[in-house]
Structures are given as C-alpha cells and as structure tokens.
C-alpha cells in the first residue's frame, strides 16, 4: 500500500464543461516573483512525484528494477537499464495518479501489484477501461480537452487531457492512445497558482499547436524525450530536436526533460536535447534533474 495510517484522499469532481477555456492563471502575476509552493521529484523514466499544497500526485508509475523487461506490446519488450530512485513503499501518501497511457514502461507489473487500488487514476479512455478490469475502479478516462478536478485539504488541481500521438498515422493502431496533461493547481476558489504541462509520449504533431492558443501562459513543462525507436526505425517519442521544437511552440517558463535513457529503445540521449536548446539560445530555460532529485515548483507570485 502507498500510505501508512489515515491521509486525506482526493475527491474527483467531473467538470461539466470539458471544452471550456482555461481558468484564470499566472498571467495576472506578470512582473512579480513566484514563491515556491510545490516540488517535483524525478523517480526515473516518466515517473515523478508532484507535490503542491495539500496534493501529491504520481505520474506514469514505472518501478521495474534494472534488468527487468517492460512489455511494449506486439511481443516487443525492452530491458530496463537504470534503477528507479524510489520503490513503491518509499512513496509519500498519494492523492491520485496521472497516467499518459498504458505501456509497460509507464504502468508495469510492480505498479499493478503495489499501488493502492482505491487511488483515483486520470488517464485515457483506453487505459481506464483496462485498469478498471484489473481492479482499479477509480480509473477515469478523458478525451482530449476533457477535465477532471481533484481536491485535498485546501488545494485543488484541474487535470486537462492534452493532444498526443505515440506513432505516425500508418501504424497508429499498433500503440495505445496517449495523452498529455495540463495540471492547474491552486486554492479551492479555482484560481490558478501553477500551470504545469506534461507532454506524455507524443511526437511533434500539428494538434499540439492548439496548446499555446488555449494556454498562452505555462509555468513548467515536463517533456518526455528519448527518441524511442522501435525495430524497423519507427520513432515514437520526441527526440532532442522535436523536444526543442515543442519548447519553442508551447513556451513554458521552465522545461524539465525526462524519459530519455531508462531503456535501450531510447536512441536520442539527453545531450541531443541539450545541444539543440543551447544552439537555439533557450537552454537557460531548461532545468535538468537527476534521479532522486527534487526541484521546487513556483507558487503564487508576491511583489
């Protein structure tokens, strides 16, 4: 189980208007200095622990040990190269899980066995149906731009499904549907103190252009990179160049790259991304984080 003793549990609240414009956000705080109100802990691959106020979220739980194989579908497996920084029994008490898609390097057999089956899980419709059959009754599936609200204590987060595509059109059915996520944290009055975008395992597609149109002010972007390449040369996640392109497109104040070296199918090392953003003069906006390292997330601005 994730938690020892009694902890506050997040309560999902369906949004009656999933396509509504985003809530008022940090744009009104321009020119002021944000104060830290949360943190992001990098566990490994695409797994992070995001804390903000009274809420604690886990993303894409991958807790396989080094040397164990992740099942990627269609008979394809990949052996994990690096050990995660935490084990499940070392996690803090969780309020919910945000899952980009159902793949063995994002939801594995260790997570299946060890995570609290009563946790809310916000994910794709494809993944939610399968997780419910596996004993996770609170898995909720979102369509693109659909929303789910969670509250715990005095903190609320609105999770909105962002566009994402794991493979080019000719082979799209070979891989599960994927979503990015926009996490908007704040107090219970629905103002937004932090807007955090997680790309999910997507390629750079035209649909992503809708993100800056709807969310012109993003505090932090967490990008899944790695240039994951399947046999035959099919790339199914962003490489360093596409990651830099997305950074310029959605323009977060800070970008945190993850998902780039845990499996041998990842062919674009972090150095590719670093070289590309430095060449474009945007490298100063990147925050590199090591496994087990926690970095602060900004809170409401103060004069």
Briefly say what this structure is.
This protein has helices at 109-114, 125-133, 210-214, 240-250, 270-279, and strands spanning 13-14, 33-44, 47-52, 55-59, 69-73, 76-79, 96-98, 121-124, 139-142, 147-152, 155-162, 180-187, 194-198, 220-224, 229-230, 234-235, 254-258, 294-302. It has 303 residues and is of the alpha/beta class. It has a seven-stranded mixed β-sheet with strand order 1-10-11-12-13-14-17, with no helix packed on it. Strands 9-8-7-4-3-2-18 form a seven-stranded mixed β-sheet. A two-stranded antiparallel sheet has the order 5-6.
Shape: globular
Query: Helix/strand-derived class?
Result: alpha/beta
Measure the end-to-end span. 42 Å
Number of helical segments? Answer: 5
Secondary-structure map with pairings?
Layout: E1 13-14, E2 33-44, E3 47-52, E4 55-59, E5 69-73, E6 76-79, E7 96-98, H1 109-114, E8 121-124, H2 125-133, E9 139-142, E10 147-152, E11 155-162, E12 180-187, E13 194-198, H3 210-214, E14 220-224, E15 229-230, E16 234-235, H4 240-250, E17 254-258, H5 270-279, E18 294-302
Parallel strand pairs: 4-7, 7-8, 8-9, 13-14, 14-17
Antiparallel strand pairs: 1-10, 2-3, 2-18, 3-4, 5-6, 10-11, 11-12, 12-13, 15-16
Helix pairs in contact: 4-5
Describe this structure as you would to a colleague.
This protein is an alpha/beta fold and 303 residues long. The protein has a single domain (35-302), classed as Ribonuclease Z/Hydroxyacylglutathione hydrolase-like (Metallo-beta-lactamase, Chain A, 4-Layer Sandwich), CATH 3.60.15.10. It contains 5 helices and 18 strands. It has helices spanning 109-114, 125-133, 210-214, 240-250, 270-279; strands spanning 13-14, 33-44, 47-52, 55-59, 69-73, 76-79, 96-98, 121-124, 139-142, 147-152, 155-162, 180-187, 194-198, 220-224, 229-230, 234-235, 254-258, 294-302. Strands 1-10-11-12-13-14-17 form a 7-stranded mixed sheet, with no helix packed on it. A 7-stranded mixed sheet has the order 9-8-7-4-3-2-18. A two-stranded antiparallel sheet has the order 5-6. The radius of gyration is 18 Å and the shape is globular.
């Amino acid at each position: 189980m994730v938690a020892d003793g009694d902890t506050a549990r997040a309560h999902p609240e369906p949004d009656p208007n999933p396509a509504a414009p985003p809530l008022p956000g940090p744009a009104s705080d321009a020119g002021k200095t944000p104060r830290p109100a949360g943190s992001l802990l990098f566990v490994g691959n695409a797994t992070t622990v995001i804390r903000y106020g009274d809420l604690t979220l886990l993303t894409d739980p991958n807790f396989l040990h080094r040397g164990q194989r992740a099942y990627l579908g269609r008979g394809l497996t990949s052996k994990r190269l690096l050990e995660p920084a935490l084990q499940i029994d070392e996690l803090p008490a969780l309020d919910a899980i945000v899952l980009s898609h159902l793949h063995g390097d994002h939801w594995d057999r260790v997570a299946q066995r060890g995570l609290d089956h009563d946790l809310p899980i916000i994910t794709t419709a494809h993944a939610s149906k399968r997780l419910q059959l596996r004993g996770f009754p609170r898995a909720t599936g979102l369509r693109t731009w659909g929303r789910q609200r969670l509250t715990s204590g005095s903190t609320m987060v609105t999770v909105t499904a962002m566009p994402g595509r794991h493979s080019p059109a000719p082979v799209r059915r070979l891989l599960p549907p994927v979503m990015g996520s926009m996490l908007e944290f704040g107090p219970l009055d629905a103002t937004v103190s932090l807007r955090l975008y997680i790309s999910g395992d997507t390629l750079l597609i035209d649909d992503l252009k809708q993100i800056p149109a709807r969310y012109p002010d993003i505090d932090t972007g967490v990008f899944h990179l790695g240039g994951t390449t399947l046999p035959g040369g099919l790339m199914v996640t962003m490489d360093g160049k596409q990651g830099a392109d997305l950074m310029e497109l959605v323009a977060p104040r800070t970008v945190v790259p993850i998902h780039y070296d845990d499996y041998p199918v990842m062919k674009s090392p972090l150095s590719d991304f670093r070289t590309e953003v430095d060449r474009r003069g945007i490298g100063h906006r990147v925050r590199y984080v090591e496994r087990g390292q926690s970095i602060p997330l900004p809170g409401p601005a103060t004069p």
